[in-house]
Amino acid sequence: MKAAVTPQPGMPGVIQIQDLPIPAAKEGWILIKIKAFGLNRSELFTRQGHSPGVMFPRVQGIECVGEVEHDPSGTYHKGQKVAAIMGGMGREFDGGYAEYTLVPQAIVFPFESDLPWAALGAIPEMFQTVSGSLNEALEIKTGETLFIRGGTSSIGMLACQLAKSKGLTVISTTRDEAKAAHLKENGADHVIIDDGDVNSKLRQIIPQGVDKVLELVGIASLKDSLKCIRPKGIVCMTGILGGSWTMNEFTPMGDIPSLGRLTVYMGDAANLHKDSLQEFIDAVAGGKIKLNIDKVFKLNQVAEAHSYMESNQAKGKIVVEI
């Protein structure tokens, strides 16, 4: 099989297309013939060498969609459409940047759909992250206000749509004024140009502060985002678009406002129900949800796709189709 291999940490060009043996099926694991996969920011950090415990060379990729090639347990039949999400993919064992992957049965989700593979490839990890962040971590409710920091990311775009579908008011940010109209078209009620100091601008719109904040930029803007919540408001840090994992100085009794709440979402396949994935795919097929796919690459273009992701040009999900 062909696979995009990261032989050692480095720049995007370090990724190589290699011929590897198709993995041998084993009990408790399922061999999938991959049709498409989405690119994720965490894979950029893995390629750079920042993901703890990852051994190289490694076939990266924390998600994929495709068809079952072989399931020793007989739970799934050959040709059945499935998604695989996280659970060590692309980190502890070889993942989705290939024509085939062998994954634990626990992280496999069956579905039915006539959507194109490129569209399906954008869904699994993006939906799992957004659903978990909004429903499990932030516990959003109709009538609340949600502030999305990092709104033009694929996670930010989908979070806006799902929040609007639940009756929330959404304020979203972008650093690029040219992208503001794109956020409005996606459903945002208000758009703020992020210059690092957003709190004062947000308070002009909602003086008392917002109910919930989905922080996708990360450490670089976390302190400012904490200033944006009302008493008993919640900030959930889900993303690290800013590229930094560790905060040098953080004073809880000062940086977290009184009665404010700070949490994180680091979801996995266990946070996603099989029925909810099918419901989301059906919503996309029915036109209720619009997938913001920025660009589709081929397997031999994974290095190029990583360069594009690292350039921060994308206004949505980057997908690779086999």
UniProtKB/TrEMBL annotation:
Gene3D superfamilies, A to Z: Medium-chain alcohol dehydrogenases, catalytic domain (3.90.180.10), NAD(P)-binding Rossmann-like Domain (3.40.50.720)
Pfam family, one: ADH_N
Annotated Enoyl reductase (ER) domain residues: 10-320
MF (Gene Ontology): NADPH binding; oxidoreductase activity, acting on NAD(P)H
Record's keyword annotation contains DNA-binding: no
Source organism superkingdom: Bacteria
Record keywords: NADP, Oxidoreductase
Ranges that cross the membrane: none
Listed PANTHER family: QUINONE OXIDOREDUCTASE PIG3, QUINONE OXIDOREDUCTASE PIG3-RELATED
Protein name: Zinc-binding dehydrogenase
Source organism per UniProt: Mucilaginibacter ginsenosidivorax
